[in-house]
Amino acid sequence: MNAKWQKSMLDYFTKGEVALWCVSAALIVLSFLLFGGDNPFTLAASLIGVTSLIFNAKGNPFGQFLMVIFSISYGIISFTFSYYGEMITYLGMTAPMAIFALISWLRNPYDENSSEVRVNRLKFKEILFMLLLTAMITIVFYFILAAFHTANLIPSTISVTTSFLGVYLTFRRSAYYALGYAANDIVLIILWILATISDPSYFSVAVCFVVFLANDIYGFVNWSKIQKRQEAEGALL
Prior knowledge:
Elements: H1 2-12, H2 15-35, H3 40-57, H4 62-80, H5 84-107, E1 109-110, E2 113-117, H6 124-147, H7 153-171, H8 177-198, H9 203-236
Antiparallel strand pairs: 1-2
Helix pairs in contact: 2-3, 2-9, 3-4, 3-9, 4-5, 5-7, 6-7, 7-8, 8-9
């Protein structure tokens, strides 16, 4: 059964996707061994996170299930460095939204294929609503994070903005979700490099988000292909 499952996974992912995951996992493990070897929880969270991204890139709801686990784990890691913005964002927003996204993806399979979600195009009015809501959340969170004396307040606030765009677009099944998360990855790389200055063990977390950035860029490219294929097949029906 295990051999069949492994063969099924290899058939499901392209060689490029398998290579991307292997290289991503190797970089995470290497950075952990070199800079953060005293906290295996960080390693486990990072590996879960990068695995969720490769499933998300395929439009597979299992990726959202893994994202819930990663969000909780990352919230705990953020708490250890007083990145309360990250903690609040992931525990109070990303994790719950990942649950909603999981439900949305399961309810909207493409052509009754439970392993691929139906990609959605947002209407102009919804895009305006999303941007207005994002601005409101950014302002509110700025004052909340300031009240908590959050480390690196401005980057942390920007992280809230990009995180919300990512989770909203994921929930709405838009290919642009990956660009929202890619923007968030860039902010988080900066945040954790700043944290590394105080504690070198956090360098492994920074590397984790560099890897996430590469995976999110691939996610956007692949979802764009999936969207074109689904729309072309729909036009033929």
